[in-house]
Amino acid sequence: MSDVKAEIIAVGTELLLGQISNTNAQWISKQLADNGIDVHFHEVVGG
């Protein structure tokens, strides 16, 4: 387990309303995990 922790924050009302999927957060999480960085949270806020 890595000592580095990450949180991904996405901005967009369309994400909150379920109009689109947050594929960017999915991709970023995979890239971070592949480089030994643990993602602990995904946060979405309206924009």
From TrEMBL:
Signal peptide: none annotated. InterPro entries: CinA, MoaB/Mog-like_dom_sf, MoaB/Mog_dom. Coiled coil: none annotated. Residues 7-46 form the MoaB/Mog domain. This is Molybdopterin-binding protein. The lineage of its organism: Bacteria, Bacillati, Bacillota, Bacilli, Bacillales.
